């Protein structure tokens, strides 16, 4: 039984990766992921310069997942680009380089630096950070997405993926797909956290994180059905050459199986990887393998996208 998969021309021996932002901000954390059973790693979304991020407390675990308003704390693009150049292909694994500029200009500046570098892997442009006060999520403004992709693809010739926010209406699925289908996007990754949720502690009668009055991005059990809907709806609308990474609510082999049924080529684990650390990749690989064995599947291709509907 093989858990191997592919995004564009890039092969992965295992479809499981970390989600950007979770235990991937330092080279020590990234090395641990590359030394685990994960098929590769994704770096914390980078800005052109290092950032401290929002004030703490800025992340809180709950019984159903977590809420975060980290505010893009990261070591700056140079740090992650250097790691990505040095480690691409290590242990046969890909390093995906995530970037999240605070403006179109910052994104273009970072893409120019990556274009000029020796990095030959996948770059993931994050258009969906919900936690910067005063900045809305680019992924919800389809004309802004078109503008950034028009600029980017005028010079960026390396493979590019996009991290998108969750969409909730069929108008949104149609609208974003119409834009993306006009560009040579290598993959999309859905979903980022569900933005601007609010967790309330009735005991203290208070919010649980400090930034933005307590509003923050939701991950974990809260988001799995929304993530599956986005994988499925976008698989039904995007050109077949555009691959899909499914992210959202994965904590077991069964959850991965569901994402692949909806059409995911790879999957990423955020909240649950935060809770469990790198042993999660071995555990979930075994769980998924056991499900495939029971069902008689030898490869992911045999059931990818084959979700049934009710006649
Ligand atoms: O750093 C964050 O606050 C953050 C980012 Br960039 C993101 O894309 N998604 C998220 O939940 N948090």
Fold and architecture overview:
- The protein is of the alpha/beta class.
- The chain has a single domain, classed as Alpha-Beta Barrel (TIM Barrel), CATH 3.20.20.
- The chain has 9 helices and 16 strands.
- The chain has an 8-stranded parallel beta sheet. Strands 5-6-14-11 form a 4-stranded antiparallel beta sheet, with no helix packed on it.
- Helix 4 (142-153) runs parallel beside helix 5 and helix 6 runs parallel beside helix 7.
- It is globular.
- The two termini are 32 Å apart.
- The model has no long low-confidence stretch (mean pLDDT 98).
- Bound molecules: ligand RRO.
- Ligand RRO binds at residues 21, 45, 68-72, 100, 126, 128-129, 131, 192-193, 217.
Strand order of the largest sheet: 3-16-15-10-9-8-7-4
What's the pLDDT, averaged over the residues?
Answer: 98
State the order of secondary-structure elements, H for helix, E for strand. Answer: EEEHEEEHEHEHEHEEEEEHEHEHH
Sheet-strand content, in percent, reads 15-25%
Count of distinct structural domains: 1
């Amino acid at each position: 039984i093989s858990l191997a998969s592919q995004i564009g021309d890039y092969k992965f021996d295992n479809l499981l990766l970390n989600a950007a932002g979770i235990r991937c901000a330092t080279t020590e954390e990234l090395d641990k992921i590359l030394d685990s059973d994960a098929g590769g790693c994704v770096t914390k979304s980078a800005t052109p310069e290092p950032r401290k991020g929002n004030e703490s407390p800025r992340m809180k675990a709950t019984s159903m997942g977590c809420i975060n308003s980290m505010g893009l704390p990261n070591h700056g693009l140079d740090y992650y680009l250097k790691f990505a150049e040095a480690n691409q292909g290590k242990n046969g694994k890909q390093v995906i380089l995530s970037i999240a500029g605070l403006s179109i200009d910052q994104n273009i500046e970072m893409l120019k630096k990556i274009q000029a570098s020796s990095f030959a892997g996948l770059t993931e442009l994050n258009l969906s950070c919900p936690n910067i006060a005063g900045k809305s999520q680019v992924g919800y403004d389809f004309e802004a997405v078109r503008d950034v992709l028009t600029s980017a693809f005028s010079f960026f010739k390396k493979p590019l993926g996009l991290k998108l926010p969750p969409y909730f209406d069929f108008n949104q699925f149609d609208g974003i797909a119409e834009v993306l289908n006009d560009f040579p996007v290598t993959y999309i990754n859905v979903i980022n956290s569900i933005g601007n949720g609010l967790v309330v502690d009735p005991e203290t009668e208070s919010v649980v994180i400090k930034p933005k009055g307590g509003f923050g991005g939701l991950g974990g059990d809260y988001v799995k059905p929304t993530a599956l809907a986005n994988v499925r709806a976008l698989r039904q609308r995007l050109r077949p050459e555009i691959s899909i990474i499914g992210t959202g609510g994965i904590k077991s082999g069964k959850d991965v199986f569901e994402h692949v049924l909806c059409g995911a080529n790879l999957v990423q684990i955020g909240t649950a990887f935060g809770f469990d650390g790198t042993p999660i990749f071995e555990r979930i690989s075994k769980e998924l393998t056991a499900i495939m064995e029971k069902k008689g599947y030898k490869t992911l291709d045999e059931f990818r996208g084959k979700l049934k509907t009710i006649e």
